[in-house]
Amino acid sequence: MGHGGGGALSAELVQNVFAPAFGGEVLHRLGDAAALSLGGLRLAFSTDSFVVRPLFFPGGSIGDLAVNGTVNDLAVSGARAAYLSCGFILEEGVEIDTVTRVADALGAAARAAGVEVVTGDTKVVEAGHGDGIYINTAGIGLIPAGVDLRPQRVVPGDVVIVSGAIGVHGVAIMSVREGLEFGVEIVSDCAPLGGLVDAMLAVTRDLHMLRDPTRGGLAAALNEVAAAAGAGVVIEERKVPVPPAVANACAVLGLDPMYVANEGKLVAFVPRQHADAVVDAMRAHPRGAEAAIIGEVVRDHPGMVVARTGLGGTRVVDMPLGEQLPRIC
């Protein structure tokens, strides 16, 4: 299970098995989406599979995730998502009403994100070989001229910005999966981020890197960028927005919000001279109302993420080994 968690074991599997087997310069960039040149156009292409349990949760469903997860991979690559494919793997015995609810949610999410589902596939597996429904989506979109988002552009002095409160999605899933009550309903942040990215690019196209901190949470996203950029990252722990309900739930469950998955947030690496204007634009957008500057890129400790604690000390924020909460996307 750890190999599917978006942490060090996932990276090991990709780097030691899949990348050598498949080869190719584009694949070895290992971005959220592949940036491609085709017929004079710059395209982003991404695919993702969704195995969340339960299928429905506060704030969304596997259908919403299947759209927003792929749309957001395209968005943080700078692309305006246009088309999706959709593959359903159904377990024998799943009720048609359940399939209909998921399909309706997926279609509504696609319309809300401004994308069209244009092709797909359906397979059925024997009872006991799935959790009702698994979904794969792939998406393509156009990358505007002048947009170049990749970790190799991240340099010391860049400011680290997060678009809002972290840990919400993973805790929302866990609360319904385990029947836990925390005194207030925690609703998933599952949402498309294309409009937010457009607002940021309207300030400047000289953004260096965007990432959506899904599996492995904010910690994994920061470590991936630091490693690829060959630079260090320092964050101020107090400035990372964690809702009280999420903090309390994580305390009860023994989790660290930094490692809990998100489905409607992004982390940005922005040149310092543009940071304030970018944050203002983000806060003016509904998906970025709680945007905050949480740290910076430094020359020290390349490839490592360090957090300054509220007590004045520091701690290393490691890449997670696997995933604290499996099967949440």
From TrEMBL:
Domain PurM-like N-terminal: 32-143
Domain PurM-like C-terminal: 156-301
Highest classification ranks of the organism: Bacteria, Bacillati, Actinomycetota, Actinomycetes, Kitasatosporales
Domain of life: Bacteria
Record-linked NCBIfam families: hypE (TIGR02124)
Organism: Streptomyces cynarae
Pfam family, one: AIRS_C
Protein name: Hydrogenase expression/formation protein HypE
Family: Belongs to the HypE family.
